[in-house]
């Protein structure tokens, strides 16, 4: 079958340096803080295949059932590419892909954007050759083009698809929201680096930053008051740090931080997020191997 070549658009929010080293159970590690995607060296096991997903805020259709397919690997045939279907390529356990997955779910786009999971450890050749030359996730196939980078994608999905808006119109909140989204890279870089040093000291600084940010608006438990792209940008990483720091370093990210505790509690009530969460035990074991085994 002949597939029309796509237009690939790469619109990174900032120019980050992509660095790799030999530190990983897979012999090298791609440092999460310098990118907005998951590489072929990211963890992506099988997941449960039946979930209930949030269908926006429509009162007559609060939830939508979705069956998740197994990740596609090197033996898999490609979907009918560039046939008018909008596809979101993900790894079920990639925090960058999780950002876009949550956005899709919250806006109720399960029928508009098809989820296509990729096995990053045994990825299909056609993904790089025919879909996304960067060979990473997430990526979005839409209107004959492919777009990458998670922070750009959550904005793209919010701006170009129906469903509840996830960014405020108020100028003050928009400005603060952009500042917080920009800071996500500093936040993740500092915490991942801390696993090899004084984790508690660095965690204090970063989670104090979030606690103070959550104090700015008091009309809701989220960063901009109401749930927004800012919360979506942070939660995949806070989720992982909360589990790993607690299990390995006996560090409670919410201790002495009531705003962060309330934020974490409220966000865990949102089904659009809950169904995308990674199994905590698997996450801890992966992070132990990745960050601690070779110290």
UniProtKB/TrEMBL annotation:
Concerning Pfam families, the annotation shows:
GST_C_2, GST_N_3
Catalytic activity as recorded in UniProt: RX + glutathione = an S-substituted glutathione + a halide anion + H(+)
**What does the record give under GO molecular function?**
glutathione transferase activity
Keyword terms: Detoxification
Span of the signal peptide: none
Q: Cross-referenced InterPro entries, in alphabetical order?
A: Glutathione-S-Trfase_C-like (IPR010987), Glutathione-S-Trfase_C_sf (IPR036282), Glutathione_S-Trfase (IPR040079), Glutathione_S-Trfase_N (IPR004045), GSTL1/2/3 (IPR044629), Thioredoxin-like_sf (IPR036249)
Lipid biosynthesis recorded as keyword: no
Which CDD domains does this UniProt record tie to the protein?
GST_C_Lambda
Q: Where is the GST N-terminal domain?
A: 84-165
Q: Which residues form a coiled coil?
A: none
Q: Which SUPFAM superfamilies match?
A: GST C-terminal domain-like, Thioredoxin-like
Report the EC code(s) recorded for this entry: 2.5.1.18
Is this entry keyworded Membrane? no
Q: Which residues form the GST C-terminal domain?
A: 163-291
GO BP, one example?
A: response to toxic substance
The family this protein is said to belong to: Belongs to the GST superfamily. Lambda family.
The name on file for this protein is glutathione transferase
Q: What is the native source organism of this protein?
A: Prunus dulcis
């Amino acid at each position: 079958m002949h597939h029309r070549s796509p237009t690939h658009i790469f619109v990174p929010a900032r120019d980050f340096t992509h660095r790799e080293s030999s530190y990983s159970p897979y012999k090298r590690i791609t440092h999460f803080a310098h990118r907005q995607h998951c590489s072929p060296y990211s963890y992506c096991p099988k997941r449960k295949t039946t979930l209930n997903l949030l269908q926006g805020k429509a009162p007559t259709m609060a939830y939508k059932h979705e069956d998740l397919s197994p990740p596609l690997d090197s033996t898999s045939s490609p979907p009918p590419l560039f046939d008018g279907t909008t596809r979101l390529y993900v790894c079920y356990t990639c925090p960058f892909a999780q950002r876009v997955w949550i956005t899709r779910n919250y806006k109720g786009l399960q029928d508009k954007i098809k989820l296509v999971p990729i096995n990053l450890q045994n990825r299909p050749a056609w993904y790089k050759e025919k879909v996304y030359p960067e060979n990473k996730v997430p990526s979005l196939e839409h209107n004959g083009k492919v777009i990458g980078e998670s922070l750009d994608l959550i904005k793209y999905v919010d701006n170009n698809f129906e469903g509840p808006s996830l960014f405020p119109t108020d100028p003050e909140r928009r400005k603060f929201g952009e500042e917080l989204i920009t800071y996500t890279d500093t936040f993740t870089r500092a915490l991942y680096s801390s696993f090899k040093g004084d984790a508690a000291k660095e965690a204090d600084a970063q989670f104090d930053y979030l606690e103070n940010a959550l104090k700015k608006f008091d009309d809701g438990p989220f960063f901009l008051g109401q749930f927004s792209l800012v919360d979506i940008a942070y939660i995949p990483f806070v989720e992982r740090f909360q589990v790993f720091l607690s299990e390995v370093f006996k560090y409670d990210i919410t201790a002495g931080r009531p705003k962060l505790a309330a934020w974490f509690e409220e966000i865990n009530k949102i089904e659009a997020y809950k169904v995308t969460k990674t199994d905590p035990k698997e996450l801890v074991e992966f992070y132990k191997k990745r960050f601690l085994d070779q110290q």
